[in-house]
Amino acid sequence: MDTMVLVLFALGLVLLIVGAEALVKGSSRLAAALGISPLVIGLTVVAYGTSSPELAVSIQSGLTGQADLALGNVVGSNIFNVLFILGLSAMIAPLVVSQQLVRLDVPLMIAVSLLLLLLALDGNLSRFDGLLFFSINIAYVVWAIRQSRKENQQVKEEYEKEYGAAGRSAKWWVNLILIIAGLGMLVLGSHWLVEGAVAVAQALGLSELIIGLTIIAAGTSLPEVATSIIASMRGERDIAVGNVVGSNIFNILAVLGLASLLAPNGVAVSPAALRFDIPVMIAVALACLPVFFTGFRIGRREGALFFAYYLAYTLYLILDATGHDQLDEFSLIMFEYITPLVALTLILLAAHAWRKRRRDQSLSPADEA
Q1: Cα 263 from chain centre
Q2: Residue 236 has what DSSP assignment?
Q3: Structure pTM?
Q4: Mean pLDDT of 84-105
């Protein structure tokens, strides 16, 4: 393998991460200076800004005909975001899901994941499908901004602490330079990363889908890793969870939507992605329901389960890519034994948390009396 290809691949990844950071900083500060509330900045500008590497890579892949990279990047990033990022963040410090919007965003995340599967059944995401996704994304952004006005003061103060007060004076031209520089690095970085990924896949005998689901998905999700883990360590409960959920919605609606819309023939969907990876993404989204909705928290046990499942998923991809003899046995153990056991564990944990919550609520009037 050409050393220069590896160098360009690594430089492309670095440019994506640095470019995303510059874009998020510049756009969030500029939005605050223009009087946009910190909560709206957190739910839209930051959540979408941290997904800008996925956007750059998927559009570049779609335009150059690497459909598996475009799709694998989005699907792999969504799996990585929930299992790895939320799992690791919850293991550091349990995440309390108290923000009302998250309760509405999780069903939307599941709904758009199911819509992706439905539209992909014919083996292609057409330009019309892309337009549908992107239109839903615009409607979602408008809805999120309107809903943010109803948030309580505690949540607003939490976002203000992270992103600064609205109307704060700032040198707008500095932030504009950051935005332009960030976009430039994203464009160049995505070009180098896609070229390097194709060369690496060919040299190692791996499919572009596998590369997109693993190396590129993890690499382009590094901004979400940093944002969520730092938020978790600071005790900013809603930001850590909201960033992941918002980014997953954006990945499907905006990233895959724009890639399908701009690609000449849309984005082709491989049978392997339809058979395994997209269903896994949906299952991961569904796994959030009992945790988010009933217990309103992601404890260390749930975080460890999420994290362990990401390792198992990655191991499956490696065994599948290398044609390992133990793949069938591993699949049997995972899908017939471990998966039902984990699902039952999550349901029992959620039911226990729900009963505890109901008990606390029934005791509170008596305490006040």
Answers
A1: 22
A2: -
A3: 0.77
A4: 75
